[in-house]
Amino acid sequence: MTNIIDTLAQRGFVSQKSDEKLADKLQKPVVLYAGFDPTAVSLHVGNLLQIMLLAQFQRHGHRPIALVGGATAMIGDPSGKSEERNLLDQETIAGNQEGIKKQLQQFLDFSCRENPAALVNNMDWISRFSFIEFLRDVGKHFRVGEMMGKESVRQRLQSEAGMSFTEFSYQLLQAYDFLHLNRQFNCILQVGGDDQWGNITAGIELVRKLEGKAVYGLTSPLLTTASGQKFGKTEAGTIWLDAEKTSPYQFYQYWIRADDRDVIRLLKMFTFLPLENIDQLEEQVRLEPEKRQAQRILAQEVTRMVHGDTQVELAKKAAGMLFGEKIDGLSDQDLGSIFADVPSTRLSRQRLDEGITLLDALCETKMSKSRGEAKKLIKNGGAYVNNVKVDNIDYVLTTQSLASDTILVLRSGKKNYHLVRFE
Questions:
Q1: Rounded distance, CA 115 to CA 109, Å?
Q2: C-alpha to C-alpha distance for 151 and 103, rounded to whole angstroms
Q3: In which order are the strands placed within the sheet that holds 416-422?
Q4: Which of 231, 271, 296, 382 lies at a CB distance of 3.0 to 4.6 Å from 301, suitable for a disulfide?
C-alpha cells in the first residue's frame, strides 16, 4: 500500500498534522472520518475537498466514515464564521441529510467488501444524552481556559458579534463524535479543513483522557483562488453539487474559468488523474495557455464525477453554442442556465402555434428598432434563429423553430443573443 500521506502531500491536501510521524501510523488500513453539517439541502464545491480527501484514503485501502451532523447542525459550528448561524429545525435538517447522502454516494464506495465507506449521523448518539448527563460525562473533561484558547473561539470573542454559549459548546459535541466513532469503529483519524483544527484537537484530547488511546488529526488548507476570492464562490453565489441549485452547465463553466495560476493545483486536488499526466498539462499551460487544455480536462473530470457523462457532453455542447454551433436538443432549464445573462421576452404560445414572422419577433424583442431595420439585418445575413442564419425576410417562426420545450434563441450579429419564451 503506497503511503497515503505522501500522495496527499504531493496533491496539496496536507496542512497540519497532530503527529509528525502520522505516515507511520497509516502503513496499515485504518478507519478515519470527516464531518459534514447538513445546513443546506446540498453540499457545495467547498465541501468537495474533504470528500476527495476521504475518497483518496479509500483508494489507498483505508475505511472512510462520512458523518452527517444531524445534531451539530442544530448548534452551528462557529469555526471560520464571523457571526452565529441561524439555527435549523429537525425537519429541515432531515431533508438536508437525504440530499447530502445521495451526493456522498457518488464519491465513496459503500458496498465494497474490504473497506466499505460508512455513513453515520451524530444525532443517533448525541440525542441520547440529557443535558445533565452530557455535562457530567463529557463537559467535566474540558478546561474553559483551553477552550477559550482555540483560534476559532478567540477570534469570535474579540469580534463585535461575540459568541453565544451554544456555539462555545460546539467543540464538545464534535470531540464526543470522535470518541464515539473510536469506540464503535476503532476510528483513529479525523480529517477536515484548517478551520476545524481546534475541534479536531479537542477530540484527540477527549479520546486520550477517556480511552487512553492515541488518535490523530489531519487538516487541509482553506482554498482561495489566485485572485483572492474564496474557493467555490462566484459573484452569482455558491457553486452547489445539486443540479437544481447550480446547473451542470454552470458547474462546468466554473471549472473552465479557472485561472492559469490555479488550474494545476485544482487538478491535483479534485481529480484522480495521475500526477505525471498533470505535470504534462502544467507544461501545456506554460507553453500554450490560450488553448486552456488543462481547464477543459479539469471541468470534464469534476463534472463527470458530480453529474455524470451525459451532463459533461451537454455542457461541452452548450459551450460550443456560445461560439456559434446550432442550438438544439436541450431542455428549458439547460438553455436558461446557458443564457442566464441574456435578455428574454415572453410571448404567448398561441402566437407561435399560429406562426409569427421573424420580422415581428425581432421588433417585439427590441432586437431591431423597426421593421425596416429588421429587414436590413436579415438581408445582410445578420439574423440567426438558434444560431442558424436566416436570410429570408418572410421567414415564419413555428413550433418547429423551438430549441427546447418553450424557448427559441434569436441572435443578431456575432454575440447579441435574446431568448424568446413561448408560454
A1: 9
A2: 31
A3: 344-347, 416-422, 407-412, 383-385, 388-389
A4: 271
Residue 217 C-alpha cell reads as 488529526
Residue 372: burial class (beta carbons within 10 Å; 0-12, 13-18, 19+): exposed
Write down the H helix ranges in 90-196. Answer: 90-104, 123-126, 131-137, 144-148, 151-157, 165-168, 170-185
Residue 367's DSSP bridge partners are none
Q: What is the pTM of this model?
A: 0.81
Answer whether 5's CB lies under 8 Å from 59's CB. Answer: no
Pairing mode, strands 237-238 and 344-347? unpaired
- What whole-number distance in Å separates Cα of residue 407 and Cα of residue 111? 43
Tell me how far apart the 2 most distant CA atoms of the chain are, in Å.
86
The H or E element containing residue 277 is: helix 275-287
Q: CA-CA distances (angstroms) from residue 338 to 10, 63, 418?
A: 36, 39, 12
Please say whether the beta carbons of 170 and 199 come within 8 A: yes
Q: Grid coordinates in use for 47?
A: 465541501
DSSP state string for 216-230: EEEEEPPPB-TTSPB
Per-residue pLDDT of the chain (423 residues; tens, 9 = 90+): 568 999 999 999 999 999 999 999 999 999 999 999 888 889 999 999 999 999 999 999 999 999 998 888 777 665 555 444 556 677 888 888 888 888 998 999 999 989 999 999 999 999 898 888 888 888 888 887 777 777 767 777 777 777 777 777 788 899 999 999 999 999 999 999 998 998 999 999 999 999 999 999 999 999 988 888 888 877 668 899 998 899 888 899 999 999 999 999 999 999 999 999 999 999 999 999 999 999 999 999 999 999 999 889 888 887 788 778 888 878 888 888 788 778 999 999 999 999 999 999 999 999 999 999 999 999 999 999 999 999 999 999 999 999 999 999 999 998 899 999 998
Task: Give dist(CA 189, CA 173) in Å, integer.
Answer: 17
Question: In angstroms, rounded to a whole number, what is the distance separating the alpha carbons of residues 86 and 91?
Answer: 15
C-beta separation of 397 from 385 below 8 A? yes
Distance CA 407, CA 421 (A): 5
